[in-house]
Amino acid sequence: MTDEIFSAYLTRRKAASDAFVAGDVAPLHEVSTASDPATILGPAGTLVQGAESVNATNAEGSARFTGAERNDLETIHGGEEGDLAWWVGVQRSVVSVEGQDEPVPMDLRVTELYRREDGAWKLFHRHADPLRES
Fold this sequence. Notes:
single chain; alpha+beta; Nuclear Transport Factor 2, Chain: A; six-stranded mixed β-sheet; Nuclear transport factor 2 family protein; DUF4440; NTF2-like_dom_sf
């Protein structure tokens, strides 16, 4: 069961995702950790470790997007227990990417982990890879 503070955080996290695919990484940095450990297992099979590297990678990734026709987060399950929380779902987006003439569909399987830092929830791990419909 999620508490009101974590639910409010997830609302901010969704807004950060919307901003990210519009080319603005600042809201994602606000909801992400600046402390190690931090990781991204990216859709292209990459592994990024360390908060500084994760935040730099997010900035580089966001800079490639120029907008989104759609960016939906479908929750499979999530919750929080103590100072740890998680969200598992599917991100379904249609994004405009620098260098592409047409919008690109981007459906990802996503697992995110969060921890409470100084009373605030922060994203410290994201695993996203392409969704294959079954």
